[in-house]
Write a structure and sequence with these properties.
2 copies of one chain form a homodimer.
Chain A: H1 8-11, E1 16-20, E2 24-28, E3 37-42, H2 54-75, E4 79-84, E5 93-99, H3 120-128, H4 130-147
Antiparallel strand pairs in A: 1-2, 2-3, 3-5, 4-5
Chain lengths: 151, 151
């Protein structure tokens, strides 16, 4: 699918690249206060989840699910938040966010107003766990994509 | 799966019931300012999407996708928002929300601060399109569940 001019997710990765597979990539979002904030970005420029065919949707959501699984194991979040919004950037991307009772917004969504500062030591502990998780996820998502070659 | 005490989505439908199938239900959320706001609720009390097995996840997301498809056809939204958050009610439910450039929050998420009042005539036009969409969706989701009996 052709890239679309002036689309930030056609022009660039959109964050720190964790892994790129043929249909999609995983990036770390670098959102302040949320070290465990990742996005699964479909490379092709489609706006809505249902612009994908059913096998593509299945692959995309299995990638999202595998990010959640790794996040739960490595980061022990109190909750995982999943969302495909795209109001600002209508190029399909799934937010996968590790949430904690101590984080700046909990239990509100990350898009609501902050409720408190997040403790620096807690944020640092999550950050310290990211490299091992990302290494594992790069392998998991490559394996997933190769099992769906041609999707 | 046993119901959990004091869980609002174990105790009640959680909104206006559109259809109930063996594993999940569709409800209209009745959120002020967002007539096209629905939730796909998994009946069993699980907190995270990946608490479901892969075939259950696939069925759940196909239900979400079918709600989006019907929404796009009947309500012509500018964008559809999908989200499974559950910070407040950790019982798996997917928000499926028809968004419009004219709505009170666009392009911000519905959980952010409002930016303007939504025009009453536009809201009424969306509301008028809901019954036909819901009737179609009830049939679609029943068919989907019967095709996945035993999932």
């Amino acid at each position: 699918m052709a890239a679309v001019a002036d689309c930030p997710l056609c022009d660039a990765d959109g964050g720190v690249l964790v892994v790129r597979t043929p249909p999609l990539r995983l990036i770390r979002a670098q959102e302040a206060g949320f070290p465990g904030f990742y996005r699964v970005v479909w490379h092709g420029h489609v706006a809505e989840f249902t612009d994908l065919a059913a096998p593509q949707r299945a692959l995309c959501m299995e990638a999202v699910a595998q990010v959640e699984v790794a996040m739960r194991r490595h980061l022990s979040p109190d909750k995982v938040n999943l969302a495909a919004l795209g109001n600002q950037v209508p190029h399909l991307h799934w937010h996968v966010i590790a949430r904690y009772r101590w984080d700046s917004h909990f239990p509100a969504p990350v898009w609501a107003a902050a409720q408190r500062p997040a403790p620096a030591d807690r944020l640092a502990a999550v950050e310290a766990a990211l490299p091992a998780m990302e290494q594992e996820l790069a392998e998991t998502l490559r394996r997933l994509a190769s099992g769906h070659a041609g999707t």
